[in-house]
UniProtKB/TrEMBL annotation:
The gene is dapC. InterPro entries: Aminotransferase_I/II_large, DapC_beta/gammaproteobac, LL-DAP_aminotransferase, PyrdxlP-dep_Trfase, PyrdxlP-dep_Trfase_major, PyrdxlP-dep_Trfase_small. It comes from Alloalcanivorax marinus. The keyword Nucleus does not apply. Keywords: Aminotransferase, Transferase. Its EC number is 2.6.1.17. NCBIfam families: DapC_gpp. This is Succinyldiaminopimelate transaminase. CDD domains: AAT_like.
Amino acid sequence: MNPDLERLHPYPFEKLGALFAGLPVADKPHIALSIGEPQHPSPDFVQQVLRDNTALLAKYPATAGLPELREAIAGWLTRRFKLSGVDADRQVLPVNGTREALFAFAQALLDRDQQPLVLMPNPFYQIYEGAAFLGGGEPVYLPCTAASGLQPDFDAVDEAVWKRTRLLFICSPGNPTGAVLSTAQLKALIQLADKFDFVIASDECYSEIYRDKAPPGLLQACAEMGRHDYRRCVVFHSLSKRSNLPGLRSGFVAGDADVLAGFLRYRTYHGCAMPVHHQLASIAAWNDEAHVAANRALYNEKFKAVLDILGEPLKVSAPDAGFYLWPKTPVDDETFARRLKAEENVTVLPGRYLSRTVDGRNPGKNRVRMALVAELDQCIEGARRIRALIERL
């Protein structure tokens, strides 16, 4: 077997299962706030497109996707991020959800003979780390702390590290922090990529779930710099969170045409083309914003209701974007999660499971991730149970 497989850490939910092993079951209905799986209804019009096109199951899909899908994506990017002249044929590539694309991207990009470094936020989406390992790279974890606004302090990265960097993963809005990189920060990273010749992979899957202001994107920063070739920059977007379609497995990668050409070649061999009826459903979803605004309003309603209950006892406020709360815990994060499950039958994810310990410090320790994905009444009930536990501690 590939020896790099041995470098993969257990996934956070595997660790959570071990933490809960042997716990008594509380006499209350379970409320899951641990996994970021959207629970709002999928749009009816998208479901109808799927039902109307099941005959296309008899067709092999093309890896590059339908021209109409690439055009729909290019149009959405143009409208959302104020771009111009997006080349739908060369700068857009549909993918089966961004998880698979993020993982595969590093393997297509990295030359393991260079002993490349792959920089990523810490805490982070664990796919970045696995992608680095299987691509023959070495992860470098950039702590996201309160002192740095829950984003990496890129100014603290040593020049020697930048010189060996071949790929930088960024996540804005952040998972689990909800923090957003500013346009100025994105432009500074683009300048670093030019100086040290690395690629920026920007995971923007939570970009449409925001409180007040739409977060900027990496391609938007490129456009403001006059870089319409988006050189060294690629973005990853998905319908999972935006449109409550995690089971559709539909997203895209867009940006540097030369990078995407190599990635398309890799994916053609990989055999991961999106089914044609999924592509047609995706066209409908990317072309509609009304359901996205309604979805965003539901999340904002939940944040308000939950923070009315938990904001003061946990000293936590709404993040700029995303659907997670990332509060500090009154006891260590594993103890908090274990007691919450045992006594209140509510699951949250210990922050240390989303982070790595570097120089003796784990930026996720004594925090938990709460995903406000359940229905409003469940989120409110979960918040009440969490508050009840806090009052007993």
